[in-house]
């Protein structure tokens, strides 16, 4: 989540200074923006629905007006449809503005940057993305510290405190140092372990380091934390004293959540967010449903015809208008992620709108049959049946008609599962595709340590 610009500054600070810095409370190190946002969230999360809606209307109007004044792309877009932000008075009027796609942002980067921002008050970030081309974005420095206040605010629901020790499994910092397996970030009091090195052979070293570090929290990709959990259960290793396992950046299944809570005897917390900073939503003390932060951005769900969904239970694309980042405002930005609303009040008492589930990314990947026919990968049912006890898997196609199904080694996974999976898939695509399942030590990961569910390129492993 940390920006590349800030990271480059951080890496230039001498180690001795970093060690001193870790003794100063995080809120002081992070500055005024962090402190004022954290103080606001401490109160605003308990506001009634009407007050939150009023707040959103004000923030939306502010961002629309700003974008019109300072961002050439929006000035042209709003003028072309006769939309005047100064007259904006109801959230439904937002529907007049066309949706913004990744392609739009890609094609118009220079026109989308606010004229107020330069290299001093902003930094460049990229979406990692498990699919498609990485997207270049500009962020205000302010948005970076505001976002940390939001992250900490939600983690507090499971007992998080900013100065406590945590172990992180996040891929990004290791991008340029493929051989490095770990490093220490004193500003966050964080031991960072590379999720690209997660074979059982590396796990001995990792678990020793974690035990010695005595973290309060484990933080990172659920796919990486699940591997660690499986290893600990298999070998009877106990990592004690954990308050919570904080999981973001990837979808997490019920099975993964159960395994993490069994292995670490701690609360498992998950949230939904994205590099673009338009929508942030997380679990609460009582529910795994994603509570949308109304202070972070305005969220819509959009159906296949481009209409706004208001009812619970209907799946639509998550579209967000972020409130944090003026350097490159994203208005009605299509995230390529899909979700559905929940209904009724939550026992936590917050009046936040909730997503019952995030159902994953749009996936247009196709498998190729023996006769070179295209079959949508998303047509495979992996939520139930033979897959219901499998925590992590990956499909790999290296030639037409043949698909390898790699199942990640884990507690309770045996060869009996393999034949059940093969049987189920082979009967589903009889004559077109043949599936061969096997248990593996680790799955193939992206640069950032994430796991793609389907890989098509010829690969050596
Ligand atoms: Zn709740």
Layout of strands and helices, then pairs:
Blueprint: H1 4-12, H2 15-21, H3 26-44, H4 49-70, H5 72-81, H6 102-107, H7 109-112, E1 122-126, E2 136-140, H8 141-155, E3 166-169, E4 182-185, E5 190-193, H9 200-213, E6 217-220, H10 222-235, E7 244-247, H11 254-264, E8 267-272, E9 281-282, E10 290-292, E11 297-302, E12 308-309, E13 316-322, E14 333-341, E15 354-361, E16 366-368, E17 374-376, E18 393-399, E19 402-408, H12 415-428, E20 434-440, E21 454-455
Parallel strand pairs: 3-5, 3-6, 6-7, 7-8, 18-21, 19-20
Antiparallel strand pairs: 1-2, 4-5, 8-9, 9-10, 10-15, 11-12, 11-13, 13-14, 14-15, 16-17, 18-19
The structure holds zinc ion.
State the helical fraction: 25-40%
- Can you tell me the residue ranges where pLDDT is under 50 for at least 5 consecutive residues? none
User: Biggest β-sheet, characterized?
Assistant: 13 strands, mixed
What would you call the structural class? alpha/beta
Q: Please give the number of β-strands.
A: 21
CATH topology of the largest domain: Rossmann fold
Radius of gyration: 23 Å
Mean pLDDT: 86
Oligomer: single chain
CATH class of the largest domain: Alpha Beta
